[in-house]
Design a protein that fits this description.
The chain is of the alpha+beta class. The chain has 2 domains: about 10-90, YhbY-like (Translation Initiation Factor IF3, 2-Layer Sandwich), CATH 3.30.110; about 105-145, no CATH class. The protein is built from 4 helices and 8 strands. The longest helix has 14 residues, at about 35-45. It is elongated.
């Protein structure tokens, strides 16, 4: 794999975005081992822009590490300042596993019933609704009914 190349304007924009980031991956005396490479790959896949701290005093070794990491992970070297390295790789689009029979997740709803007396406080009750339940205007919980569909639509054409 080869490292990505960035134009100066894109590099400047990524440097400004990386300024507020904390280092996600730390590289110790072992260098770019297989475990570090795997963590760095996972971080780039999840975030796209990653700041890496290197615990090494030699600037030449840090530059070599940045070049090796960007080439091995198909990433772009954005910045090398002190012991911090910044890498960028475009985030792959996420695919959503769609299930036809899936119901919405349970959710918590607050039910507020006001008292008939103005001096009493309203009662507040938290209720967990399942995917097929709803709250009526009166505050009761009912199961949602499936929509009636035509028999003609169910038959194959």
């Amino acid at each position: 794999m080869s490292a990505l190349v960035l134009d100066p304007s894109r590099r400047k924009a990524l440097r400004s975005q990386a300024h507020h980031l904390d280092p996600v991956v730390m590289i110790g005396s072992d260098g770019l081992s297989a475990a570090v490479r795997q963590e760095l790959d996972a971080a780039l896949t999840a975030h796209g822009l990653v700041k890496v701290r290197v615990f090494n005093d030699s600037r030449d070794e840090r530059e070599a590490l940045l070049a090796e990491a960007s080439a091995a992970l198909n990433a772009a070297a954005v910045q090398h300042i002190g012991k911090l390295l910044v890498l960028w790789r475009p985030v792959p689009p996420k695919t959503k596993a769609a299930r036809d029979d899936a119901l919405p997740a349970p959710r918590t709803v607050r039910l507020v019933k006001f008292s008939s007396s103005p001096t009493h406080r309203p009662t507040v009750k938290k209720v967990k609704l399942l995917g097929n339940q709803r709250v009526t205007a009166g505050g009761t919980i009912k199961r949602a009914k499936r929509r009636a569909t035509s028999i003609k639509k169910k038959q194959p054409g």
